[in-house]
Specification:
By secondary structure, the chain is of the alpha/beta class. The chain contains five helices and twelve strands. Bound molecules: glutamine.
């Protein structure tokens, strides 16, 4: 199995390292052809405005939308979460509107550039996730199909999943946390091989998207 990491800008090397740590081949994605044959895709942290420009310049917008529509998992961290959000508070145009949420960029303000927190994430089980937040966004609104995976103590939403799309406000790849990547690898394996005899079809919940 090969999982791509969008490698235009930002913290992509750490995601490649984390994939390596769980025995999954990570592939740098810089142009549409790099998506061929991948089982999943990770959008790293960085600067979403820069990523927006580079996604457009390299012609990656529609190819990534199509990749996600195929049902393969797409995982965004921090700026990657902003890139995936259907709505950006303040009225910026969405970039790859795959996740039915409203995101607020830089939600913790200038006085709090970065912080760390331990979060309970039930779907991952076990010990809390040590989460690193860097000029992080939060999720202000979730659509009906969106599962909340983690909240801060004050209730603010910092990790979500909607079908094959997973997003976190924080950077698991900067804290030696591998369980989100394992979750994505499991989703990718299920997408590649939906399982004979389970009665599942390849994309049972795939929804058609207006373009
Ligand atoms: N503040 C950045 C943005 O708005 C995200 C920061 C990050 O990815 N660590 O794009």
């Amino acid at each position: 199995m090969r999982i791509g990491v969008l490698a235009l800008q930002g913290a992509f090397r750490e995601h490649l390292d984390t994939l390596g740590a769980i025995g999954v081949e990570g592939v740098r994605v810089r142009e549409p052809a790099d998506l061929d044959g991948l089982s999943g895709l990770i959008l790293p942290g960085g600067e979403s405005t820069t990523m927006r420009g580079l996604i457009e310049r390299w012609g990656l917008r529609q190819p990534i939308m199509d990749f996600a529509d195929s049902g393969a998992p797409v995982f965004g961290t921090c700026a990657g979460m902003i890139v995936l959000s259907r709505e950006i508070a303040g009225g910026e145009e969405p970039i790859l509107p795959l996740l039915d949420v409203t995101v607020e960029r830089n939600a913790f303000g200038r006085q709090l550039e970065s912080f760390e927190a331990d979060l309970d994430v039930d779907v991952l089980g076990g010990t809390p996730v040590h989460a690193v937040f860097i000029r992080a966004p939060i999720i202000e609104r979730t659509g009906l199909g969106v599962d909340v995976l983690a909240r801060l103590d004050d209730g603010r939403i910092v990790a979500v999943r909607e079908r094959n799309i997973v997003a976190t406000s924080f950077h698991p790849e900067l804290a030696g946390e591998t369980r989100f990547h394992r979750l994505v690898a499991t989703m990718a394996a299920e997408h590649d091989d939906p399982g004979e005899g389970s009665g599942r079809r390849p994309h049972p919940t795939r929804r058609t998207r207006a373009r």
